[in-house]
Amino acid sequence: MNTSASNYIQQLINDSGLLHLKGNSKKSYPNLDFSNEVILITGAAGSIGSGLTKQLLHCKYKKLVLVDIAESPLYELQQALGHKTNNVKFILLNITEKESLSHLFKTYKPTLVFHTAAYKHVPLMECNPYEAVKLNVIGTKLLADLSILHTVKKFIFISTDKAVNPISTMGMTKRIAELYLLNLNNIEKTKFTITRFGNIFGSNGSVVPLFINQINAGKPLTVTNKNISRYFICKHKACNLILEITSFENFENSIFTFNMGKPIKIIDLAKTLTTFYNEDIDIKITKIRSGEKLHEDIISNDETLVPTKHKDIMHVKSNSDKPTKTLNFDELLNITPYYSPQEIKTILKKYV
Question: Helix, strand or coil for residue 205?
Answer without folding.
Answer: coil
